Amino acid sequence: MISAHTHLRAGVGPLTFTRLKWTSFAHSCVYTALLICAFAAGKPEPLTFALGLSHGLLWIFMSFACIAAARLRVVSLKLAVAVAVLGGIGPFFGSYQFVREQRERSPRTHASGR
After folding, report:
1. What does pLDDT average to over the chain?
2. pTM score, two decimals?
3. What are the residue ranges of helices labelled H in 45-107?
């Protein structure tokens, strides 16, 4: 069975799957820190502002980067939509989709030795 991801590239210039994946994970960490500051730590300023601004700018950057990467066939359209549409609410959707797509791209090893 041929996977839908077999036609995807590893990267084009500086826009690579690996760089986007790690940036997505960093974005998820920033967002987690923002949630902790905003809801558990009593909204300390200017930290909450800096984390909120970082989250917003990272979401905008990742949205544009993933849309461009989808057009260049570096990532799937499904991954780009997860980042661009759901990333403003929670970047965990995009990070999770990067993990799923990486698993689908990697060669599978079967227990039966095939």
Report:
1. 89
2. 0.83
3. 47-71, 77-86, 92-105
